[in-house]
Design brief:
Length: 76
Amino acid sequence: MMKRNITLKLESQLLRQARILAAEQETSISALLAKQLEKTIRDREGYELARRQALGTIRKGLDLGFAPGSRDELHE
């Protein structure tokens, strides 16, 4: 997959902390941001899949095996 460059503006203090974090993880700021962005997108896609499945189950309903008796039986 082709990679593209982007420009990002950060406050000086945030950039300083990002450099420290990247150095601690022995990576670059670019790799650190790319990894976090990929995780965020994967999490969102997983949430959307689970949401669609849950809504499908709700629409379909669940058979709980309950069969109400007659009106007379319920009042006894």
